[in-house]
Amino acid sequence: MGFNMYFYFCYVEHKVIIVGLDNAGKTTILYQFLMNEVVHTSPTIGSNVEEIVVKKTHFLMWDIGGQESLRSSWNTYYSNTEVMHVYTALEKINVCFLFSFSQDLRKAAVLIFANKQDMKGCMSAAEISKYLTLSSIKDHPWHIQSCCALTGEGCNAPQTRAV
């Protein structure tokens, strides 16, 4: 009886939305988490949803298409969620508008992956952090790290850091 009550009260679930511009590597990273391998992907129209379980923590991962025509629908996913943003380390586009314009995301934990670190001319996680002025985010937790979705390097953070 005690064990069952312990399990009941220790169950933790996080809803995580994976956002980023089109072709950033969101789906590739999701399936690196899920299967620890690269899968052939095509542009996401709408969303992919997968559950990842680490110990007693369940992550319901919503991979949302990044095409410009789909971005206006992102806010429908924001309620009671954490954010994983996949940022192509080759782009110099400030996408922090996500966090400043949505009341639903003001307290969300944010994990940013600086993807495509294998590409020549990419920015490091530190350079992206400075470019996006992440140090100015004081009201909720955030973390940025470099990764390469194609090799899996740096793609294990959600399993070691609870979002």
UniProtKB/TrEMBL annotation:
Stored SUPFAM superfamilies: P-loop containing nucleoside triphosphate hydrolases (SSF52540)
One of the record's GO cellular component terms: Golgi apparatus
Residues the entry annotates as binding GTP: G20, L21, D22, N23, A24, G25, K26, T27, G66, N115, K116, Q117, D118
Molecular function GO labels: GTP binding; GTPase activity; metal ion binding
Major localization listed first in the record, in broad terms: Golgi
GO biological process assignments: protein transport; vesicle-mediated transport
PANTHER family tied to this protein: ADP RIBOSYLATION FACTOR-RELATED
Family named by the database record: Belongs to the small GTPase superfamily. Arf family.
Protein name: ADP-ribosylation factor-like 8
Source organism of the structure: Sinocyclocheilus grahami (Dianchi golden-line fish)
